[in-house]
Amino acid sequence: CTEAKKHCWYFEGLYPTYYICRSYEDCCGSRCCVRALSIQRLWYFWFLLMMGVLFCCGAGFFIRRRMYPPPLVEEPTFNVSYTRQPANTASGQR
After folding, report:
1. How far apart (Å, rounded) are the C-alpha atoms in residues 73 and 38?
2. Membrane-spanning residues where (predicted)?
């Protein structure tokens, strides 16, 4: 893979001096320097962004549940009654 490079130059006296920097570096006078606010290096930015997205999703779900509660299902009441089996008189007489 050929990595993208930046071609930089500066004047040293009357003559330009050329040098090459990496793609994520900037030309800073006579040398290369790394950007202070590189998005890839701000891991806490991505972490807080994901936490914010999760918070918004959770808050939206909670608000939706509060504003539109699920309908209460009317369950039929169960009548539990115990019936006694009739005494089997035929088994006692043989």
Report:
1. 55
2. 43-63
